[in-house]
Design brief:
By secondary structure, the chain is mainly alpha-helical. The chain is built from eight helices and no strands. The protein is extended.
Length: 168
Amino acid sequence: MILFLFLFIGLFILYPLGFLFWNFKFSFFGPEVWVPLGNSFKLGVSVGFLSVVVAFVLALATTQKNFLGRRFFSTMATLPLISPPFVLALSSILLFGRQGFLTQKIFGGKAPFEIYGFWGLVLVETLAYAPTAYLILKGVLQAIPSSMKEAALNLGANRRQTFLRVIL
């Protein structure tokens, strides 16, 4: 009886698992997997870097400077967070697609980049993820006490040194 049980387990469980792992090896470690994986990594790094740069510039402008329209820019920066995700993608296609408004009216039928390609994805995803980075960086920049900036200026640092050493 025990021998029959081992044969049953071996035949109907272990034998199919061997085929599963054999196919798994060829499916997930073949050369056709590494190119898309590398492209995804390149896209993620590009979008992450650009989102943080755009968000930092906007957060710095809205927290450190007093100018007319500061509240408007702060509100506009967070607007993509409350809109559905497909709205940003659809509006990008309607503006920069092959028959898009900006493509036809401003660029004369030839867009400066392909919205369906790598740079189009970078643009759309940067616009989608920058508001999240903006809110995080805005909180960080608002938490820097103004007394630290004033102390750096009083101790002889110029505005560039204060920016590089205190704010960054």
